[in-house]
Amino acid sequence: MAHDRTPPSPSSNENSRRHAAEGCPAPGEERDRGIETVPRQAATVILLRGGDRVLEVLLVQRTPLATFMGGAWVFPGGAVDASEGEGDAAHRAAAVRELAEEAHVRLADPRRLIKYSQWITPPQVKIRYDTHFFLAELPEGQHPRVDGQECVDLRWAAPADALSAQRSGELELVFPTIKHLEQLDAFASVRALLDHARGRAVTPVTPHVVGSGETARVVLPGEPGYARAAT
């Protein structure tokens, strides 16, 4: 996945981090009212380890030189390539490719990925993705490592530990990553999560932006203000 590597200024980077953590668009990402941007198809892998004992997830840090989510810790993923086609097979192919490119982990069969969720960037934002999140266990004998370009660091963390590190300022996490970690924290082991996910009905989630500028915030379906923002 290609990224703009122009270094942002320290002040703009700090603002972007705060906005991302609060779930609102970074300055300049909000769009004017008008034609809605069509989301680009994307896929993400939530890589797991721990079996029936514990649950840890792999997070990779995007290069701070990227203007889009620079320095943020995320799950490996990226946009679907045109050569990968369309539909579920294309999302699975992109997920496997991105995991190999960003973390050097190779999954033998994309069909074994377990679809967990689908998030669509709010329509009020210029840069939009329709991202399909998949679960996968770390294959035996493989050891993740970053490419050093798109991603510059990685760590394994229990969801609760990653969230605690975000609150203390140690990790920069973006809104969708935070929300997924909050969900994953409910499971004591990889096995419990996978058993749950296999029977899970996945429906698209489209957050909406309420307010603008410094007061902007993202709301999820069912939260106060969502119905009004969606109309």
Topology:
Layout: H1 10-22, E1 40-49, E2 56-62, E3 73-74, E4 77-79, H2 87-103, E5 114-120, E6 129-137, E7 151-157, H3 159-167, H4 175-184, H5 190-198, E8 204-205, E9 208-210, E10 217-219, H6 226-230
Parallel strand pairs: 1-6, 5-8
Antiparallel strand pairs: 1-2, 1-4, 2-3, 2-7, 5-6, 9-10
Helix pairs in contact: 3-4
Structural summary, described in words:
There is one protein chain. The protein has 231 residues and is α+β, with helices and mostly antiparallel strands. The protein has a single domain, classed as Alpha-Beta Complex (Nucleoside Triphosphate Pyrophosphohydrolase). Helices cover 27% and strands 23% of the residues. It has 6 helices and 10 strands. It has helices spanning 10-22, 87-103, 159-167, 175-184, 190-198, 226-230, and strands at residues 40-49, 56-62, 73-74, 77-79, 114-120, 129-137, 151-157, 204-205, 208-210, 217-219. Strands 1, 2, 3, 4, 5, 6, 7 and 8 form an 8-stranded mixed sheet that branches. The protein has a two-stranded antiparallel sheet with strand order 9-10. A hairpin with a 6-residue loop joins β1 (40-49) and β2. α3 (159-167) packs across α4. The radius of gyration is 17 Å and the shape is globular.
